[in-house]
Design goal:
alpha+beta, five-stranded antiparallel sheet, binds N-[(2S)-2-benzyl-3-sulfanylpropanoyl]-L-alanylglycinamide, binds calcium ion, binds zinc ion
Length: about 475
Amino acid sequence: MFSLLPLLLLLWAMGSQGFPATSEQDMETVQKYLENYYNLNIDGEHIKKQKSHDTLAEKLKQMQEFFGLKVTGKPDVETLKMMKQPRCGVSDMAFRFKLTPGNPRWEHTHLTYRIENYTPDLPTADVDHAINKAFQLWSRVSPLTFSRVFQGQADIMLSFVWGDHRDNSPFDGPNGNLAHAFQPGPGIGGDVHFDEEERWTTDSRNYNLYRVAAHELGHSLGLSHSTDIGALMYPNYIFSGDVQLNQDDINGIQALYGPSKNPIQPNVPQTPQVCDNKLTFDAITTIRGETMFFKDRFYMRVNSFYPEVDLNFISVFWPHLPNGFQAAYEVVYRDEVRFFKGNKYWAVQGQYALYGYPKDIYSSFGFPRSVKHIDAAVSEEETGKTYFFVANQYWRYDEYKESMDAGYPKMIADDFPGIGNNVDAVFKKDGYFYFFHGTRQYKFDSKTKRILTLLKANSWFNCRK
Ligand code: 0D3
Ligand code: CA
Ligand code: ZN
Ligand code: ZN
């Protein structure tokens, strides 16, 4: 059943002396566990090439971190013990939040807070507003309620302090550590300190107080850092334009306090999981030799140097572009990538957004007003022809002549048979088109008008089957 040889070799290669004489059975436990819950790829005799040696150690580390074990990256006694415990069938990877070690939480659901002082960077009303909104994020999705007090002790005391402020966690001047908060408990428990040496803002400049307060309050309520880059509890400050809890933050707070009694719940963003077989895409394009996939607020990128998929906010790459593109394509000879949303499009050169955008698709490309959005687009380097897919039809545009070719639109089904009635996304690589429709992907040869291979949409992400 199991091919233990590669794993044993791998562990041996990792220099994993210092863990107990591991039996074959234990090895089987480790392998099976990491395969089940951590997408470990051990395929027959081969560790799949993209999964490097430290990936196994990485997976072990992730697992150890998740369970609050000592993070060794090795299958030590504690780790094996945890792996042998019964589990519900859900992948740990789906839950990326982490609770504070020991799972401290508030035992009452009505909490008080007090703003002890103010930063000179902002009007006091802006500070009050930012803090108030940050509390609301968490109260909306949990049974917790918060009320502000103006004197005496409150459960959560918030203050702006700098340098050594006598809690054994001195701040470090501008940047670096922005703030910290204490886990639920009496006295200093729950309190939030902001580093006064940061510049505090109410916009996208570093550092947005609402964004930082929202994160710190997560700690005040008992959450630790999440590995989900889309979560407010992710360890690094990323300002993605708006501040909202994502599904992982909500899973975390509800694991501690249960669900909200309020029936009206906000729309919750989720971070795409690259190895989720149900993953679909909004748009895909090549860009300077790499392929970039777009989904909601995120891009995903793979390259040959690094085994893991690079997943991040679109706004980190292009702060001035919107989220949720519907189509994207690259014009290689101009070193330009164009992004479409509704009847507008934007253009970038590498990481720089070009001036004068967005423009509309009618005056630029000659689409009729009946076209409200583009489903997918791809340009052929050799011919300078760009294909735009709109519902069950497609248009062909000449990049050199800067005009739509005569005789279009045509039916997708006539010239790209088998790829479905409409297209989510398309890109071209090594002479072939790759069409995406839902969770399906078609490798298509336009010379023979034939589908060569049927693939899962996420086939580029080095996932196990
Ligand atoms: C911190 O200072 C966190 C606070 C934080 C993290 C994410 C979002 C808001 C606030 C300490 S609990 N993190 C450091 C940070 O992001 C690592 N510094 C700024 C930076 O690296 N640009
Ligand atoms: Ca600092
Ligand atoms: Zn402090
Ligand atoms: Zn933090």
